[in-house]
Amino acid sequence: MYRAIDCQGFAGGFTLGMVQAGFKLVGKREMRGGFGVANCEANRHLLGDAWRSEAVEPESWTRADAEVVFGNPPCSGFSVMSARDFRGADSKINHCMWALVAYAALVRPEVVVFESVQNAFTSVGGHALMRGLRADLETRTGDRWDLYHVRHNAIAVGGAAVRRRYFWLASRVPFGVERPSLRRYPVLNDVIGDLEPLGR
How far is CA 138 from CA 44, 80, 124, 149, 171, in A? Predict the structure, then answer.
């Protein structure tokens, strides 16, 4: 079983998906304040007990052994939902992406992946920033990392929403992306049907 560390996975949607895909969660790292840590702690029955969370400044995150480091650092530097003067490759919120890469360099996994909005790749300066993050990873580790830019819409891969996303994926091993063949798309009851027995 491959081990994985959640680095800024926040409330745990990506985290749960990794566990459901067969990865063993061995750590959760969040910045001070620990947004989402309480939710993940409350769901250990779903996420397992082999992990420890840390909600401190990124420089204080401790290393754990893992094959994958994953997360979804804030995408507001590229989101059309944020103020225009806040957006762009130089947005201060992008320090979260740099922190994820620095932590990945400390762990030295085989694969590093984070989710963002598609504008992080398609906007002016975004593509250069994504390449810069890979260059930083290579400088810190001394290894070659192949960078894959994966764009998709959640509904097209079985998700329950029309939600265009971008995944930055750096790998030290050969990596392929398979296109899923869906038999059907999710409907409302697939998304919230488990709430019915809870009553009002």
Answer: 34, 30, 23, 17, 11
